[in-house]
Amino acid sequence: MPEGVEVYRWTEQGYRPLVFSDGWMVALLNWEPIMDLEKATEIERHKETDEVFILLKGHAALYVTTAEGMRVVEMQPGLIYNVRKNTWHNLLASHDVALLIVENRDTHLHDTETRNLSPSEMDTLKKNLAPHIFGISSQRAKE
Questions:
Q1: Ordered DSSP codes for 121-136
Q2: DSSP strand E in 22-140: where?
């Protein structure tokens, strides 16, 4: 690698901050069990910062709650998804997923609030996911 260039890779499960600068950081997020619908029980928000997601490979659904209720967005590779501060959000993903995350430095340590998903939010997730992508049987998607 040329001088002045750093290269990082993360191939294990889960979240790994890799690049740190004065006020921001870049992390990679690969599939982990909490990204399966059966394990999706929480949603989170950050009160002090936005959080950027870029889908690198695989399939992912970003879900957010707003005053209008829960919305599920099937992410497209290469697009930038900026989740504004104070927005409740989380992800579901296929086992081959890789996402790039940009956020304020140490957000994951000091600025993350979580809460349980409500039964109606779980219903919204089940009804709005592509069953063939997220491994949901047609029957379970209707439940």
A1: HHHHHHHHS-HHHHT-
A2: 24-30, 42-45, 51-57, 60-66, 69-74, 80-83, 88-93, 98-104, 113-116
For the whole model, what pTM was predicted? 0.88
Check whether 103 has a pLDDT greater than 70: yes
**Considering the domain 14-132, what is its CATH architecture?**
Sandwich (2.60)
**pLDDT value for 134:** 65
Residues 73-95 have pLDDT tens digits of: 999 999 999 999 999 999 999 99
* In the chain, domain spans: 14-132
